[in-house]
Amino acid sequence: MAGGGEEPFAPSALGTRPHWDAAYERELQAFQETGDAGEIWFGEESMIRIIRWLEKQKVPLDSSVLDIGTGNGVLLIELAKNGFTNLTGIDYSPSAIQLSEKVREKEGVSNIKLLVEDFLAPSAELLGFHICIDKGTFDAVSLNPDNAVGKRKQYVRSLCSVLKPEGFFLITSCNWTKEELLNEFREGFEIVEELPTPKFCFGGRIGNSVTALVFQRKK
């Protein structure tokens, strides 16, 4: 799918900031009216999968964790409930950060830092993270109508700048296969583990609709 400089996906509004601003403005309105935090990307099992892996690896609870494209911030809430204390969420949509702040307030969690940040142009504040997590943000970057190839490469550069050497990067994707992600992150990262995801069967072939991988930044 993703070879050389080719665009592997058709451009989509899902890859643009106005789409996400509008989506999170709607979710923010809904939260204020009903208290519903909105959609959990890839479902609750995707959060459980990440938390179980961190626990299995005995990742210290004070490790610095960055949620890239935090949306409603629910993943960070779950990490906090599981004892993690050094949590940061970023999103380039101010509406998403407003929503995640309100969810954080409702849940009574104080040890989550939330920032309006474009990961493709990270501020100097985003440095030295032990763990970076992405659930769907790289997918959205890949759909940007304006030079998606260049933006994917910038994503990898940004990841190298914010993640400590030997830090872990956990990515969940519905657009990319394991082999394609290995290719996208081949510079600066090595695969640690593929996490189990739900399988489907179609026409006698078994496959995964979601890919979840753990990378480690090289020294």
UniProtKB/TrEMBL annotation:
It comes from the Eukaryota. Gene3D superfamilies: Vaccinia Virus protein VP39 (3.40.50.150). Coiled coil: none annotated. It catalyses: L-lysyl-[protein] + 3 S-adenosyl-L-methionine = N(6),N(6),N(6)-trimethyl-L-lysyl-[protein] + 3 S-adenosyl-L-homocysteine + 3 H(+). GO terms for cellular component: cytoplasm; nucleus. One of its GO terms (biological process) is methylation. One of its GO terms (molecular function) is protein-lysine N-methyltransferase activity. Residues 64-193 form the Methyltransferase domain. Its EC number is 2.1.1.-. It is an enzyme of class 2 (transferase). Protein-lysine methyltransferase that selectively catalyzes the trimethylation of EEF1A at 'Lys-318'. This is EEF1A lysine methyltransferase 2. It comes from Chrysolophus pictus (Golden pheasant).
